[in-house]
Amino acid sequence: MFNSLSGRFLILTIIFVMLAEILIFLPSVARFREDYLTDRLQRAQIASLALLADGIVDMDLEEELLANAEVYNVALQRNATRELVLSSEVPGPVSESFDLREAGPVTLMRDAMERLIDSEPTVIRVLGYPSRDAGQLIEVTMDSGPMRHAMVEYGLRILTLSAVISIITALLLFLAVRRLLVKPIKGVVAHMQSYAEAPEDVRRIIRPSAGVRELREAEEALQSMQTQLSAALRQKERLAQLGGAVARVSHDLRNILTSAQLFTDRIEMSEDPSVKRMAPKLVGSIARAVSLCENTLAFGRAEEPAPVLSQFNLAELVSEVLEAERLAIGDHDLSLSEDIPGSMQVRGDVEQIYRMIGNLVRNARQAIIGTGQPGEINVAAREEDDAWVIEVIDTGPGLPKRAREHLFQPFQGGARKGGTGLGLAIVQELVRNHGGVLRLARTGEDGSCFEIRLPMGQFA
């Protein structure tokens, strides 16, 4: 129970109410002591009136009057004359004097606490104003023992009452919290557990019903999240089914296209001028189809293999990538360059980094050739304190808005017509395998720049 929200709220309520009562306890006891002393002064004044009215009081009556007032002596000052009106034997010397005429709240509370702490009975002197202006001053001597006993009893009554009030208040708040907060929260938790069992079932999405504004906002936020998650799961399932179908089709299609490539090789040997003109276009179309099938199959694998790390020269690797791309450029006005220190050593998987840079350069080449305008692609690299940074910079047309919004999402982030967006998705996965980050540094009408950041880690 005490580990629950309502249980802890119950304990905290009791503690805070008791603290509040303790803060009230000090002034309450001080006021009780002041009233007690004032009452003794009034009793002493009434006792003294009997003597003032008659003038002669026998010893027994005087003792009875003093016992009724619970004092030893009574002195009264009237008309600037101070007179001992009633007196009896005092059991000891007066230890302290208390003047109620000038005592402030702080003084009263201090004196009350001192009396509660000191359990030894003593004789004290108390001074105050007589009631109903019956003089300028009344003074009594009395035993402090009965006063302390009365203060202790009063304090225990206050503490007992405080405890009862605390428990009742805490129970009421406990029930209110369970009804207004805990029960709705448990309802939200039950909805979450039910939804977790079958997130595809839209009937399990929570329907906001809480009356408390904050809880209703939480329910509405949960409803929105569950709705989006259910839609995402349905989309993911459709994509998974589509991906499986595409992978199977791509596998068979690749075999068919491979056979078609063999036939095109024979067609290229034909002496027919029209066949010679059409053959290169046919070869290019089939090559692109084969590449698409291979990319689709590569992406359809469960995951890329873990990188096999080794130290290698980055400039030599980039030169191989650019040489392979120059063969694909043909007669187009497109230049390739590199800006990499010849001695720059990088630790990583050679084949995977080759594919990273190759995919980015290939995407840039296809984008520039698609415009029919001349262009340039540059691969640059540098070492920073904790990372190797590789940049692929082109002077192409830049990425359209839709491509930027779904940049690294397969089948959605393609920047050119007919593209699948698999290239960037594959590059991102390979970069993540190395613990790195792939990002689009800039894009616009003057070109784009992709940045690969590979952490050095313990290999720096």
Structure overview:
This protein is α+β, with helices and mostly antiparallel strands and 460 residues long. It has three domains: 5-170, no CATH class; 213-299, Helix Hairpins (Orthogonal Bundle), CATH 1.10.287; 306-459, Heat Shock Protein 90 (2-Layer Sandwich), CATH 3.30.565. The chain has ten helices and twelve strands. A five-stranded mixed β-sheet has the order 2-1-5-4-3. It has a five-stranded mixed β-sheet with strand order 7-9-10-12-11. Strand 9 (375-383) and strand 10 (387-394) form a beta hairpin. Helix 5 (213-267) runs antiparallel to helix 6. The mean pLDDT is 80.
Reconstruct the topology from this structure:
Layout: H1 5-54, H2 59-69, E1 73-78, E2 81-86, E3 94-99, H3 105-117, E4 123-128, E5 137-143, H4 144-197, H5 213-267, H6 273-300, E6 310-313, H7 314-329, E7 334-339, E8 345-348, H8 350-371, E9 375-383, E10 387-394, H9 401-405, H10 422-433, E11 437-444, E12 447-455
Parallel strand pairs: 3-4, 7-9
Antiparallel strand pairs: 1-2, 1-5, 4-5, 6-8, 9-10, 10-12, 11-12
